[in-house]
Amino acid sequence: MVSIKDIASKCGVSAATVSKALNGQTDVGEATRQRVLEAAKELGYTGNFVARALKTNRTYNIGILYTELQGSGFLHEYFASNLNSFRAESAERGYDITFLNSNVGSQSLTYLQHARYRQVDGVAIMCADFFDAEVQELASSDIPVVTLDHSFNNRTAVMSDNINGLGSLVRYAYSKGHRKIAYIHGNPTAVTENRLTGFYRACEELGLKVPSTYVESCEYHETVGCYKATKKLLALADRPTCILFPDDFAAIGGLNAIRDADLRIPEDISVMGYDGINLAQVISPKLTTWQQNTEELGKIVAAKLIERIENPRTTAAEYIVVQGKLFDGETVLDIN
Questions:
Q1: At how many degrees (to 10) do helices 30-43 and 4-11 cross?
Q2: Which of 198, 218, 237, 295 is the Cys-Cys partner for 167 at CB 3.0 to 4.6 Å?
């Protein structure tokens, strides 16, 4: 097994200097630190986990709460990308991850009990029913918690800019001459509330009147529901010229409904999605959508959680909004 002394010998420095460099202490020059880190990597040094845990009173294990609300599991590209960047950032900082659930073997546990059982240093709530009593119990505990796309009091929350995202889609459609813009939103969540705010706010700023019949709903990531909601919009006597879908995957159902009605996209009706998953860029025509910065979202959740774990007395709760961008596809017709 590679030791600190082996690294010190390779770098021509003392064991104390190697220890300081590996532990991130500030009284080591940056050039020396990098030389030590490169040598440690080259030699395959993994450190003494037990000694490190005893010294810091941490397990270097982070819990992730991910409940499959849409039934798509880790195939949901938005969450899969968030989780991947979260995992990479955690590993880079020396932390392992454990998924929390309500069972350990045959034993039924609450999320908080599971977190304590696994002795995690903190928990990232990435996807959950934030109004569930067990989730709220966990968020109210003494365990460091950071949430994604939901805000609890006195907890750091990392949010995608859903208000601006929906508003940007509305403004884009307006710039192309559309004045009859409909929105199929997802099931009731904090994310949905923010997107609806962005939709209505942008319409009001642009002087657009939104008939109640122009706003429908379906489950996120659910093609059948989006198909039905789209059919209702197409059946209106004064139908919209542009429809915003709840997400790019659900949009497949909406696109099928439009084609089953013998309408062309975008010549007869324009559409836009949300999320910016790869699927939006490979279907034909390419879907105009709002692309969320999933890589940055997951990375920030991990960084802020570890910051809270390692500096509990000096780290305050934050509300962090991560910007996205418009993916200009081929599904919005310029009718100016």
A1: 120
A2: 198
